UniProtKB/TrEMBL annotation, chain A:
Residues 1-41 are annotated as: Disordered. InterPro entries: Cdc20/Fizzy (IPR033010), WD40/YVTN_repeat-like_dom_sf (IPR015943), WD40_CDC20-Fz (IPR056150), WD40_repeat_CS (IPR019775), WD40_repeat_dom_sf (IPR036322), WD40_rpt (IPR001680). PANTHER family: CELL DIVISION CYCLE 20 CDC20 FIZZY -RELATED, GENOME ASSEMBLY, CHROMOSOME: II. GO terms for molecular function: anaphase-promoting complex binding; ubiquitin ligase activator activity. This is CDC20/Fizzy WD40 domain-containing protein. Transmembrane segments: none annotated. The keyword Cell division applies. Residues 142-442 form the CDC20/Fizzy WD40 domain. Keywords: Cell cycle, Cell division, Mitosis, Repeat, WD repeat.
From TrEMBL, chain B:
It is found in: Nucleus. It comes from Aegilops tauschii subsp. strangulata. InterPro entries: HORMA_dom (IPR003511), HORMA_dom_sf (IPR036570), Mad2-like (IPR045091). Belongs to the MAD2 family. The lineage of its organism: Eukaryota, Viridiplantae, Streptophyta, Embryophyta, Tracheophyta. It comes from the Eukaryota. This is Mitotic spindle checkpoint protein MAD2. GO terms for cellular component: cytoplasm; kinetochore; nucleoplasm.
Length: 471, 207
């Protein structure tokens, strides 16, 4: 009866929606805003409990050797250097497997009054920098009705062409950040939907869409054409996607991870079997050498391309590391842009920790209890900072200084858990989508004018500075 | 030496940890002064261990050492610290020139059961004094450090120690073919600390 169907939007009939239809991705009018009342100040201490030594782990022999070795030296004051070196190296080796060597992160200052500010020495204490202003409220809020409230999906991505893609129910919307205009790419058939994952290809033009039916669609957004549909890759929904040049890696609820070469006919070139439950997090490292995957089985796997199986038949590959430290689903994954082999991961509701990993050795470098379900993680490309998004109770975005993990800012505004985050190509703005059906934009990583690359950042892809920043 | 009936004092784990971490603080200062890592004028004299000890007046170095010693104290109380190494490196090349190695052997029983030990405070002070005197006199045989140097401190802990967020994993920063000299050690009966300095051999001085 109502003529309100003129707007190009379809509703999944399976859902009970309020009679009012809200056009998607429009500026949120007067939405109820609930400021956070409680002031949280959890002390992010990492000190473990008092250590109770394990006698069986104490090597009495080594200890005795070390004690008596000293006495011998006293007699032979000028023992040959090589012997000494050997002795010490031996001691080092013996101790190595049960010892960690730690150094203080903040290095002592360099001597002399001469501060050579231009020499970048890793031991130099940085002079205090002006802290930039981080706006505490979202710069813009858009409506995102029908956003599926499912922790395990990945429904938003921001492409290098500065277009944000977001899946609301069965429909894929594209929001051009430069112009602020919204367009609908596709509404999938009800049987295939809802959309469960989306990922832009590195070229910023092609878009991969994963569906509840297990199909994967590949679109050319410049012509709005469906290029191909990958079928039969998974047995159930495809909740995570990641691109590595022309390889589209797909993660399914069946626990499988498949590398698909989208250029060829028999696209499934490799399968990684390791997860026993839904693969909800999937990220390739910057170098494209390693893949991190997180699942609902609480496992984090690191897969290395160089470990390809030589067996022609199965095409299944062993993981490089299987890390079991998290005690809840691992969805949030983020590779560090300025330090290779450093991965940050976040755990779900019963874990709530952000952990840092050396993906070379598999060592867990640090673990911080955030107090809240970690839904998503993003590294700042310009500064040494990490942004995390959370659920109950604050639904906040937290900005951490790395590596000290001091909280620099807590951004509130969302009234339900912040499920997805994406970063603008210029690295200044973060978009967050929440179960409260809003999409908010935060200028948390700095204003575009002063954005400068961090020392080790490598510019890959097409970060074109001529793209206008959203205002 | 005829044994005097010296009165023994009670040493607790906490007390011992405090003694060791304090010792390290003073030793580090001594080394930095003696090896000329920081200019002489930036040090001030205090009396400690019955000797005139030099402490840095530089705020940043002070803070660094204070943060360090408090963390060391905590690790010592937990019995997790195996050794502390003060590394002196060339500012220009980062090459490790000297390594001041303080090995720590902890009486596990004390950590486990919370026992206390007895030893005369004076005796511990005397032992530490001997080490400090030795550190000062090392100048006579250690090669000249005639380029600007920087220092760092490494802590060797048990591998299951949780790494506090202000610390990070590091490599051992070893010296190739070092010359090593062992100094005196001191023992609180809970922690035994051995001191050893290893240094890069100057090619010209090769024996």
């Amino acid at each position: 009866l109502r003529a309100a169907f003129s707007c190009s939007r379809s509703i999944s009939s399976g859902k009970n929606r309020a009679a009012v239809q809200r056009p998607p991705l429009q500026e949120a009018g007067s939405r109820p805003y609930m400021p956070s009342l409680s002031t949280r100040n959890p002390s992010a201490k990492c000190y473990g409990d008092r250590f109770i030594p394990d006698r069986s782990a104490m090597d009495m022999d080594v200890a005795h050797y070390l004690l008596t070795e000293g006495k011998k030296d006293k007699e032979n004051a000028a023992a040959s250097p090589s012997k000494e070196a050997y002795r010490r190296l031996l001691a080092e080796k013996l101790l190595n497997n049960r010892t960690r060597i730690l150094a203080f992160r903040n290095k002592p200052p360099e001597p002399e009054n001469v501060f050579a500010a231009d020499t970048v020495s890793s031991h130099q204490a940085k002079p205090a920098k002006q802290r930039r202003y981080i706006p505490q409220s979202a710069e813009r809020t858009l409506d995102a009705p029908d956003l599926v409230d499912d922790y395990y999906l990945n429904l938003m991505d921001w492409g290098s062409s500065n277009v944000l893609s977001i899946a609301l129910g069965d429909t894929m919307y594209l929001w051009d950040a430069s112009s602020g205009s919204t367009s609908e790419l596709v509404t999938v058939e009800e049987d295939n939907g809802p959309i469960t994952s989306v990922s832009w290809a590195p070229d910023g033009r092609h878009l991969a869409i994963g569906l509840n039916s297990s199909d994967i669609q590949l679109w050319d957004t410049s012509s709005s054409r469906l290029l191909r549909t990958l079928k039969g890759v998974h047995e159930s929904r495809v909740g995570s996607l990641a691109w590595n040049n022309n390889i589209l890696t797909t993660g399914g609820m069946d626990g499988r991870i498949v590398n698909n070469d989208v250029r060829i006919r028999d696209h499934a070139v490799q399968t990684y079997q390791g997860h026993s439950q839904e693969v909800c997090g999937l990220k390739w490292s910057g170098s494209g050498q390693q893949l991190a995957s997180g699942g609902n089985d609480n496992l984090l796997h690191i897969w290395d391309v160089s470990m390809a199986s030589s067996m022609p038949s199965a095409g299944r590959n062993q993981w490089l590391h299987r890390l079991e430290d998290h005690t809840a689903a691992v969805k949030a994954l983020a590779w560090c842009p300025f330090q290779s082999n450093l991965l940050a991961t976040g755990g779900g509701g019963s874990d709530r920790c952000i952990k840092f990993w050396n993906t070379h050795t598999g060592a867990c470098l640090n673990s911080v209890d955030t107090g809240s379900q970690v839904c998503s993680l993003l590294w700042n490309k310009n500064e040494r900072e990490l942004l995390s998004s959370h659920g109950f109770t604050q639904n906040q975005l937290t900005l951490w200084k790395y590596p000290s993990m001091v909280k620099m800012a807590e951004l509130t505004g969302h009234t339900s858990r912040v499920l997805f985050m994406a970063q603008s190509p210029d690295g200044c703005t973060v978009a967050s989508a929440s179960a409260d059906e809003t999409l908010r934009f935060w200028n948390v990583f700095g204003t575009p004018e002063v954005a400068k690359p961090a020392p080790k950042a490598s510019h890959s892809g097409m970060f074109n500075s001529s793209f206008a920043h959203i205002r | 030496m005829a044994s005097r009936t010296a009165s023994k004092d009670i040493i607790t784990l906490k007390g011992s940890a405090a003694i060791v971490s304090e010792f390290f603080g003073y030793a580090a200062n001594s080394i930095l002064y003696n090896r000329g890592v920081y200019p002489e004028e930036s040090f001030g004299k205090v009396k400690k261990y019955g000797l005139p000890m030099l402490l840095t007046q530089d705020k940043a170095v002070k803070t660094f050492l204070t943060n360090l010693t408090s963390q060391l104290s905590e690790w010592l109380e937990g019995g997790k610290l195996q050794r502390i190494v003060l590394v002196i490196m060339s500012k220009a090349t980062g090459e490790v020139l000297e390594r001041w190695n303080f090995n720590i052997i902890t009486d596990g029983e004390v950590v486990e059961k919370g026992a206390v030990k007895e030893k005369s405070d004076k005796e511990i002070m005397r032992e530490i004094q001997a080490i400090m005197r030795q550190v000062n006199s090392c100048i006579s045989f250690l090669p000249c450090l005639d380029e600007p140097c920087i220092f760092d401190v490494l802590a060797y802990t048990d591998s299951d120690t949780t790494v506090p967020f202000t610390w990070m994993e590091s490599d051992a920063k070893l010296i190739e073919n070092p010359q090593m000299v062992k100094l005196h050690s001191f023992d609180t009966k809970i922690h035994k600390v051995d001191t050893l300095v290893s240094y890069k051999v100057d090619d010209l001085d090769e024996q």
